[in-house]
Amino acid sequence: MRSSWIIGAAFLAASATLSHAAEPDLAYGAYQRGLYQTAFREANLRLEKNANDAAAMTLLGELYNQGLGVAMDPKKASEWYRLAAGRGDANALASLGLMALDGRGMPKNPAQGRTWLEQAAAKGNALASHNLALLLLTSGNDEDLKKAVELLRKASAAEIPDAQHALGVLYLKGRGVERNSTEAARLFERAASNGSSVGEVEYAILLFNGDGVPASESQAARYFRRAAAKGNAIAQNRLARLLVAGRGVPANKVDGAAWHILAAAQGLADPWLDQAFKDLSAEDRKRAEKLAAERLGMR
Questions:
Q1: Is residue 213 included in any domain, yes or no?
Q2: Is 204 exposed, middle or buried (0-12, 13-18, 19+ CB in 10 A)?
Q3: In this model, does residue 5 exceed pLDDT 80?
């Protein structure tokens, strides 16, 4: 389940809380610039001035949790998060929730993790709303499903791309909501605009099939290419197929073979494409392999 969580609550904590300080915020400014040791020092200086500075505590928790500027120490991270959470910091609560669910820095405790996520979501933390929704979606309980939909709506409105994708999937499947491919397409497009490669893939599929949006193979190819460039294996595979068939893009077997090589390297096999590229000349195969290597090196 860990791979589904969105982390980074402390980053939002700093941007939402520390930046509103009356004087320039040296701790978060350093964090933003990647000067993590400086951020660590400045956060501690803040606590010397104000022992109840919850935002500074959360920032220290983030530094220890991610091993930024200090040795990674989940236990210390959880201790700082607990101190901040005790002072009402929503972002610390959100981070604690994930740590309890994963047993990171503390014994695994799903019930406590859910409670912390609920508290953070109630305070308006969008990442907590998304992560709590993911947790509720696994329960198989209809009431939890309804809650998950509402939480995903809140997180989507806050422009969390993974939440927009997740809610789009629910609309596409008609799970917890009435099936609505038009709304699914709108959400996938928003997720894609916010940088989600899975959103790009889902939107491309709807564009290709004309489901919820007017059909456009050329637009579908563009979204597949965007996601493929980010390393999405499904997008690489679909783009390769389009390049072989010349649908939405001019036919180009060398380009298609390069994308197929990258998708196959991630474990996505495709016998149809294997057959399509069977007759590539040795020179074209070498060109495809070189192109694939160049694309891999660009990421």
A1: no
A2: buried
A3: no
